[in-house]
């Protein structure tokens, strides 16, 4: 399984945008880039995914580099509720291989 | 529309015992995956069920087994429990269409082994 590299932790101020980076230099052409997050005491929650083009939904935006070797999850206006562990994952089939993710701290 | 539901939410067992955890998938989903999450770690894939058969399996011993029923619900069974089996067990459901389908997770069963 192709691997991803994420910072262990990040901090951001409330009501400001947050850019969470992910490197995946060994990505293959059939790998989808998925982002999940896990809030305290909850199961992981799907955030967004894409293949080649940038994607937007009500939760976030996903910016994918042209060579697909990196991507960035963008939270447009962070709230305290966005404090969680964010996982960047490459998927080509139905299972998910989680890494350690980025722990995002939101400062009030 | 109910999401993924798991039962029980918490469970305490002793070493050597056996345990069964249950999962009801999100309505319309036909594939169920199970994950183990140790404290402070990311979830680890155990196995996946589709059409009542185990389709993929992670690096877990045969003490971990499962079942999927015709209504797509699923059970995870763990025999001969070890202290190291203490973890949060997560169930996720999806449509069986490969890497393009999100998985929807329940909030897990917290299993403690004494």
In short:
With 108 residues, chain A is mainly beta. In chain A, 0% of the residues lie in helices and 46% in strands. Chain A is globular, with a radius of gyration of 13 Å.
Biggest interface found:
A-B, 25 and 30 residues
What is the overall silhouette of chain A?
globular
Q: Strand-and-helix sequence of chain A, N→C?
A: EEEEEEEEE
Structural class of chain A: mainly beta
> What is the succession of H and E elements of chain B?
EEEEEEEEEEE
Helix/strand class of chain B: mainly beta
User: Low-confidence runs of chain B (pLDDT<50, min 5 residues)?
Assistant: none
What does this structure look like?
The complex is a heterodimer of chains A (about 110) and B (about 110). With about 110 residues, chain A is mainly β. Chain A contains no helices and nine strands. Chain B is mostly beta strands and about 110 residues long. Chain B contains no helices and eleven strands. In chain B, the strands form two sheets. In chain B, strands 2, 4, 5, 6, 9, 10 and 11 form a seven-stranded mixed beta sheet that branches. Chain B is globular. The mean pLDDT of chain B is about 95.
